[in-house]
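Supplementary Note 3. Input sequence used for the single-chain structure prediction.
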Amino acid sequence: MKYLALVSVLALAATATSACHKSEVAVEANTETQIPPGEVWLTDAQVQEAQIAYGPIAEEDVDDTILTSGRVTFDDLRVSHVYSPVTGRVVKIDAELGANVKKGQPLAVIESPDIGSAVSDVAKADAELIAAEHDFKRKKDLFDQHAASQADVETAEDNYRKAKAELERARQKALIFRAGSYDSVSQTYTLVSQIDGEVVMRSVNPGIEVQGQYSGGTAVELFTVGELTGVWVLADIYEMDIPRVKVGSKVEVRIVSYPDKVFIGKVELVTGMLDPTTRTARVRCSFPNTDGLLKPEMYATVQISVEERKALAIPRSSLLRLGDSTIVFVNVGKAADGRERFLRMPVGVDEGEGSNWLVVQHGLEVGQKIVTNGAILLAAKL
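The predicted structure, written as discrete structure tokens, is reproduced below.
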């Protein structure tokens, strides 16, 4: 009898436990079924863990954009291409590649016979002018005393004028060297920088023979000095877009090296003619570059703003595409149990190519709190 009583007690306990478990499951199932279709409820901890962000929408400064490709170049007024005016041999390099130099700072020293030739030409022309001037004055005095003919005076005068012109020519030739400095004794010429900037290209080493710009050969650029605090981006636009692009329009540029960084500049010039091959016009955009991230010859994705206006808009990250529908998630407050409620809501937007903001056509109103980050995680919980 005691054994049967113990079995009965254990059976009643198991039945009660089973009933309690079924009751909890039923309560949980009942709680789950209370979430309306199209909604996702999350606790504050879940929202924080999923890094879901939301905020009210409002009217934004939106614009249509033209998306094209471009190339970073020097600002023409901030770059100096350094050539040698003399033919000779490089004996010293004063500025290494990447060095920051000031205007007038030495770049290289060239040993050249052109220096001695130019100096001696000036001295010779000066001496010949003095001699011609003396001869002209002497012939003129003799003519006044009827001791020389008019022809002798005229010949002496012509020689004087020729000597004067020859001296001027020799001096002008020597002035070619005024961009740098020279030593007539050692016959060396010092190339100097014409602007403040960075040495971005150097094509010579000590011992290299260089060709002078004015010696009849083909001169090679020896240094490029550029001031990179401001650069240009050159882009091409199609003929149909020319009327839409205005000088002063905002331009955004992205480059491969810094994909998450946006560089802001403006349109400076739209060229007055088309490329006959591509049928495009060249647009020149200027960009501040104080951090030096934009480097000449980098390729860039260029986004030119046109037709700016105020409109109700949402960030592109808020929009999800489910089949043929476009939706966003809107925060509609807290549920009775304290969880945040996110409602799936269809919306119509203008998905203009390249636009940072999507203009709302229907489905949303000012002030509604839309999810700006983590919408795809909410969609996965539906």
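Residues 1-31 have pLDDT under 50 and may be disordered. The longest helix spans residues 2-33.
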